[in-house]
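INPUT
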Amino acid sequence: MSDTVLADAPPIDTARLERALTGWLPGQRWYAGKDRPLRTARVVEVGAVTSHGMILLVEAEYADGGPGQLYQVPIAVHPAPRPPDGGHVIAVQDDESVIEGMSDGTLVRELLHLVAGEREHPRLAFRSEPRCAAWPPPGRVAGCRPLGVEQSNTSVVADERYVLKVFRQLHTGTNPELELTRALRAAGNPHTAPLYGAVETELSDGPVTLAVVQGFLPGAADGWTRALAAVREGRDFAEQAYAMGGAVAAVHRDLAARLGSRPMDEEHRTELGEAFRTRLEQALAHVPELAPYAADLRAAYADLAGLPPGPTVQRVHGDLHLGQLLCTGADWTVIDFEGEPSCAMSLRAERHSPLRDVAGMLRSFDYAAAHGAAPDWARASREAFCRGYADTSGTDPHAQEALLRAYTLDKAVYETAYERRNRPDWLHIPLAAIARLTGRDPAPAP
Ligand SMILES: Nc1ncnc2c1ncn2[C@@H]1O[C@H](COP(=O)(O)OP(=O)(O)O)[C@@H](O)[C@H]1O
Ligand SMILES: O=P(O)(O)O[C@H]1O[C@H](CO)[C@@H](O[C@H]2O[C@H](CO)[C@@H](O)[C@H](O)[C@H]2O)[C@H](O)[C@H]1O
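OUTPUT
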C-alpha cells in the first residue's frame, strides 16, 4: 500500500441531484426496474475519487413498496453548464454540469491509476492482481473510449489495452466475475481475459465489488455477431460451435479443479426444481403468455427429484450465451462471469451442474436462428457445440437429458421475463422454444 488518497468531495446539491437521478435512471440500459414505478433515486453512499469525480451508490425506491435496488453511478462535476465532448449529462446545476462518470476520461484514468497503485482510500479499496508484463500500465493512461455495446454494466477501454468494467446493479458479496476469473487465471486457463485488478467497498452488510480491470482483447468479435453473420449469409456454424464447446468445457474443468465439485444429491435436485418453479411463478405474473405451458414446466421441474445419481455440481458461468464468447484468432475467450445481475450474490455463488451453461448456449443458437436461419441451422450448431464439449470434457451433455431439458426450460422462462422488460418484440423467441420443448407446438424443432 502506498499513500492515502484524500480527495475532497465535489460540492453537490444532493436533493437536486436525486431529483435529476430519478428522471435519468429509468432511461439507462442497465436499469432493471423498468417494469416498476420508481418513487425516488436516493444517494446512499459517496466515495470521492478526485476533486471533481466521485462514485455514488444510489438506491432506487419503488412506489409498489417492494425491495429497492442499489445502483452504482460514478459522476463528474464540470464547472460549466455545457459538458465536455462525449460527456453524458445527468443534471445541470447553476453554472455546473453533472455528467455520468464513465463518460469522463479524467475520472476513468484516475480509477485505473488507483487500481494500479493499490491506494488506500477511506471508503474504496483499490486492489491490483499480481504484476505481469502488461500490468500495471507503464505510464499515464492516455486514451479512453466507451465499449459502446448494449450491456448490463458499463465498460470503458483504456489505451486499447485495458477494460474498466463498472458494475451497475450492486449486491453485497464478492462479484463472481472477480472470483471466477481469478480462479481461472490461477489455473492457467487460456479461455479468459486477463484480470488486473478491482475496486471494492464495504457496506454495513458486507463487501461489494464495484469494478474490475481486465485485459482488452483487440479486434475480438463476439459469438453472437459471428453467429448472426453466419445465419444471414446462409453459412454453417458447426466448426465455430464445436470450438466453443471445447472452450466452455475447459472453463468448467478448471473451475471444478480450483473451486471444487461434488455429486448433485437428491436434496439438491429437489431444491433446484423448486427454484425453477419459483422463477416460473414469478415470471407468470409478468408474462401471462407462459400460462399454457405452466403445467408442463412444473412437471419437468418436479421430475428432477427422481433422477438417478450421476450429475455433479460446481461453480459455473451462470449466464452463458453467444455474446459471452469472444473470438480471438482460432480460439474462444469466455467473458462476463458475473451471473444474473439481478440476483443476490449468494444465489449466484450456488453450485450448479455445468449443464446450466450448456443450456444457455443451446438457447443462444436458437435465438440466432430466429433471425432467419435455415431449419436445421440451430440443431446442427447445438449438436456441434455438444460434440466439442464432450470431446474436451469426456462427458456428453445429452447423457443427462432430463436435467439438460429442465435447465433449458428454466433459461427460456428467464428469457421471457428478460424480453418482456427489455425487448418485448423478442418475447416470441423464448416462448416458441418453450412451446417446442414442452411438445405444445406441432411445428418440428429447428
Ligand atoms: N476483455 C475484453 N476485450 C474485448 N472486448 C470485450 C472485453 N470484455 C468485454 N468486451 C466487449 O464488451 C461487451 C460487454 O461486456 P460484458 O462483460 O459482457 O458486459 P455486461 O456485463 O455489461 O454484459 C462484450 O460483449 C464484448 O463485445
Ligand atoms: O447482459 P448480459 O450479457 O449479462 O445478459 C443479459 O442480456 C442478454 C441479451 O443481450 C440475454 O441473452 C438473451 O439474448 C441473447 C441475444 O441477444 C441470446 O443469445 C441469449 O440466448 C438470450 O438469453 C441474457 O439472458 C441476459 O442475462
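end of record. The chain has two domains: 14-215, 221-438.
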